[in-house]
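How a chain folds remains the central question behind the approach discussed here. No coordinates are needed to read the tokens, only the vocabulary itself. For completeness, the protein is quoted in full, as a sequence line and a line of structure tokens:
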Amino acid sequence: MNTSSVASHVVIRLPSRVDSFISPFFEQDLKQKLQPGVTIIIDMAKTKFLEPAAASVFWAGIIQSRKEGAKIIARDMNEQVKLVLERSGLLHHLQEL
């Protein structure tokens, strides 16, 4: 995963597959980036496959972000990824309002 930071925005770029091997690294990166007032942008432009089990990482991140006063936004999802996030109840939590 590649990360970059500008002001109060942090970008996490996910790889082409987010599966049970990658999920712990994503979870660790997300936890490190969650800070009060920060907006974390999950760039999923290269992500072609999202294992449904990886949804737990997103849920943990959303719960923690609300406690920290941070925000998580997912961008550039393909249809398969969007469908997994939608079916797990995550999609509307990861979209900009």
